Amino acid sequence: MKCSICNLNEADQTGAHIFPAWMIASAFDHKSRTRGYEIIYAKYPLDSKLPFFGNSVSIDQIKDQIGRDLTNEEILNQKNMFTVDNLWCRKCERRLKQVEDYFLETVERKINDFSNCNDTDRIELNNSNNYLIRLFLYSIIYRASLVRFMGFTLNYKSAKKLNFFLNNYIKDDLQSTLSFISSSYRKDQLLKYPIRCIKTEQEANSAGLVFVHNKHNKPYCLIINRYIIQFYGKGNQANFKPNSFFGISSIIKEAPEFKNYKEEVFRIGLINQKLWNNVMSSLFNSQVSYIMRNHIRRFELMHKLKFGYMPDKTLITLFIKELIDNDLPLGIKYTKEKIVEAMNRAIK
């Protein structure tokens, strides 16, 4: 299979992160270790798998999450949703690491002071290369689309354009990349797509998450732990419904201008802990509601298949009580087996 990025080499990279390990580490391990210590819950509406446990997670931690050890079969079936095998080549992995490291040093490690952030703020990266920052953001948006992360896909034109940018402008080493960008008379085409990058204030040991909304493409919206990214596929289009995307759009509407479009200096938006908590609450409430609606639909379908008619509200309420009102560890509470058991108890 050919590399999905360069389409030249064999796709020989295994264990590749969709998003850089440093970017998501604190979401799944309080000590922010980048590999092996993750405990990852994948809360898809119809996904009822066990959490993913990194190979360095202790037996006691696993028991805290699921109430027992993993079976041999469960160990073999463990899959980290943030890594992929044989989708791109090792050479492209090394090329993309240039812009990952640049963003890590220029943004992640330098912007950590929220003391002057009164709800929102903006930082202009006067001494940074906005082309490299954009190429980093383009790389993670493109990879999320490649693997259809949480169902996310770019439209054909946007995907083709980002693929061109990654192949044309990122060379084999950082100095070559910088030299090529500097000498390119077409480099400003990299700046013609509106994009926002917002860093959120998060207290130590606070819950993190990764969420990509597959329904919003005006703009495309990604939450990657501490970062919120909004990308518009064409032109100076930066309008959106003010209440969309869990309140983030309303926050941005009232904030200093975060948008980057044909910019000379890249802007990073800041959101403080209070507003971030509001976003988290809105997102969790939305997802819990969505997941529960899907559980109810499955119960209704099962009931109709078994009895020939839909369950009434009383029976649905009993099913939800059986599903939720128990002392099961969170890691197994909503697995397929436990959902079926709750269904059976409700209709017996």
Describe, in plain words, how this protein is organized in 3D.
It is a single chain. The model has no long low-confidence stretch (mean pLDDT 88). With 348 residues, the protein is of the alpha+beta class. It is globular. The termini are far apart. The protein has helices at 21-28, 59-66, 72-77, 90-108, 130-146, 156-169, 174-183, 248-254, 273-307, 313-324, 330-333, 336-347; strands at residues 16-17, 39-40, 52-53, 83-84, 120-125, 195-200, 210-217, 220-224, 227-231, 266-271. Strands 5-10-6-9-8-7 form a 6-stranded mixed sheet. The protein has a two-stranded antiparallel sheet with strand order 1-4. It has a two-stranded antiparallel sheet with strand order 2-3. The protein has 3 domains: 16-77, no CATH class; 88-271, no CATH class; 284-347.
